[in-house]
Specification:
The protein has 287 residues and is α+β, with helices and mostly antiparallel strands. The chain has a single domain (4-272), classed as Carbon-nitrogen hydrolase (Nitrilase/N-carbamoyl-D-aminoacid amidohydrolase), CATH 3.60.110. The chain is 26% helix and 28% strand. It has 7 helices and 18 strands. It has helices at 18-34, 58-62, 70-82, 161-169, 186-193, 196-211, 262-269; strands spanning 4-11, 39-41, 85-87, 91-95, 98-106, 112-117, 123-124, 127-128, 143-145, 148-152, 174-178, 182-183, 214-218, 221-224, 227-230, 234-236, 242-245, 251-258. Strands 1, 2, 3, 4, 5, 6 and 18 form a 7-stranded mixed β-sheet that branches. A 6-stranded mixed β-sheet has the order 9-10-11-13-16-17, covered by helices on one side. Strands 12-15-14 form a 3-stranded antiparallel β-sheet, with no helix packed on it. Helix 1 (18-34) links the parallel strand 1 (4-11) and strand 2 (39-41). Helix 4 (161-169) packs parallel to helix 6. 44% of the residues are buried.
């Protein structure tokens, strides 16, 4: 029997005022729910502009908060009122003085189903996240919700097939990637990285195909200092076909996902059963 769920992605731009961003995010979540979305996902670090462009933004730490905390209270209240599963993108979490990039999953009853702390933390030009976040210590998490088994991963986790595979092996039917990624410089993209947006999308489409799960990425949009966030949020099915995709403007994206297609496709391809775990020891060796 089909098991359809409606997935909503909130692609938004951010200002320098957290209160404005949170108000906008809540309004866009409500819009998505009003269009029928049962699971709604916000972008990474949606409370603020992407402060990690600078390696030394001390003011950012003043805006970090605990979980539960003021922002999760607002998300909880909205999820309860709308009777949805709300994935709060990610927040700058202060856990007793240690800081993480953390995704929070709220249930339709307003309770926190669980949290996931970003595993892979980048450190390169304009993405100085290692100056702000400790590596996540939760491990890859899969959460049972009334609308399916979901795994929130966060942005840079997108580039690691290991994270997606672990999530799928733990029973995830839908992998979600709240994201903050954009183009740095046209010359760099042309001469070094190639089409960065296409590479970004292709990596996640590969996770959908190789694990036979639904994959969704929700990015921010707009220009912030030296970064142009390209948006491009999308949802792909377990065969890696794109079901829905946005452009580079603010948008609420909806897609219908039949989660009962996941297991039959996994059984047909048998990627998990045919793994050679005895040959993968090199994956756990640090350089």
């Amino acid at each position: 029997m089909p098991r359809p769920i409606a997935l909503g992605l909130v692609q938004m731009s951010m200002t320098s005022e957290p209160a404005e961003n949170i108000t906008k995010a809540l309004a866009m979540v409500e819009d998505a729910a009003g269009k029928g979305a049962q699971i709604v996902v916000l972008p990474e670090l949606f409370q603020s502009r992407y402060f990690c462009q600078r390696p030394d933004d001390a003011f950012a730490f003043e805006r970090s908060e605990s979980i539960p905390g003021p922002t999760t209270e607002k998300l909880s209240e909205l999820a309860r009122r709308l009777k949805i599963v709300l994935v709060g993108g990610s927040l700058f979490e202060n856990a007793g003085g240690k800081h993480f990039n953390t995704s929070v999953v709220m249930g339709p009853d307003g309770e926190i189903i669980g949290t996931y702390r970003k595993t892979h933390i980048p450190e390169d030009a304009l993405y100085h996240e290692q100056r702000y976040f400790a590596p996540g210590d939760t491990g890859i998490k899969v959460f049972d919700t009334p609308f399916g088994r979901i795994a929130p991963l966060i942005c840079f986790d997108q580039w690691y097939p290991e994270a997606a595979r672990i999530a799928a092996l733990q029973g995830a039917e839908l992998i979600l990637y709240p994201t903050a990624i954009g183009a740095v410089d046209a010359a760099v993209e042309e001469n070094i990285t190639g089409d960065w947006e296409q590479m970004w999308r292709n990596a996640m489409l590969g996770h959908a195909a190789c694990n036979n799960v639904y994959v969704a990425a929700v990015n921010r949009c707009g220009t912030e200092d030296h970064l142009r966030f390209w948006g491009g949020s999308f949802v792909a099915n377990p065969s890696s076909a794109i079901l829905a995709r946005t452009g580079d403007e603010e948008a609420v994206l909806l897609a219908q996902c039949d989660l009962d297609k996941v297991r039959p496709l996994q059984d047909a391809w048998r990627f998990f059963e045919n793994r050679r775990s005895d040959m993968y020891g090199a994956l756990a060796v640090s350089e």
